[in-house]
Automatic annotation (TrEMBL):
Gene3D superfamilies: 3.40.50.2300. This is Response regulator. PANTHER family: CHEMOTAXIS TWO-COMPONENT RESPONSE REGULATOR, STRESS RESPONSE REGULATOR PROTEIN 1. The modification 4-aspartylphosphate is found at D53.
């Protein structure tokens, strides 16, 4: 069965790069342009993993992670933060909010796919 991954990022080009890599690896992809859009896409559909940016308009990635963890159906859905940020306090905030991993942009698609498969297998 194909696993579904939600990508939440305000950069359309970044969503495209991530989406192409994931679809190429056999995943289904849902895209959202910010945290609010991401929450709207969590409509009961089974999502196996979420990849989210930190800095986004309307609702940032950390607030988004906290909101996802409040949803019973998605409480245990693993979340990877994919961001240009590298401040330790933001990494810590993400971890506290419930994010499983942190990937820095720019990233190599193969690195991202490795992280995705590692988390989905655990």
């Amino acid at each position: 069965m194909n696993k579904t991954i939600l990508i939440v990022d305000d950069s359309e080009s970044l969503r495209q790069v991530v989406s192409i890599a994931l679809v190429g690896a056999g995943y289904n992809v849902i895209e959202a342009k910010d945290g609010l859009d991401g929450l709207a896409k969590l409509d009961g559909t089974k999502v196996h993993l979420i990849i989210s940016d930190v800095n986004m308009p309307n609702m940032n990635g950390i607030d988004f992670v906290e909101a996802v963890k409040e949803l019973a159906k998605y409480k245990f859905t693993p979340i990877i933060m994919l961001t240009t940020e590298n401040q330790p306090y933001l990494m810590e905030e993400s971890r506290k909010a419930g994010a499983k991993a942190w990937l820095a942009k720019p990233f190599r698609p193969d690195q991202m796919l490795q992280a995705v498969s590692k988390i989905l297998e655990s």
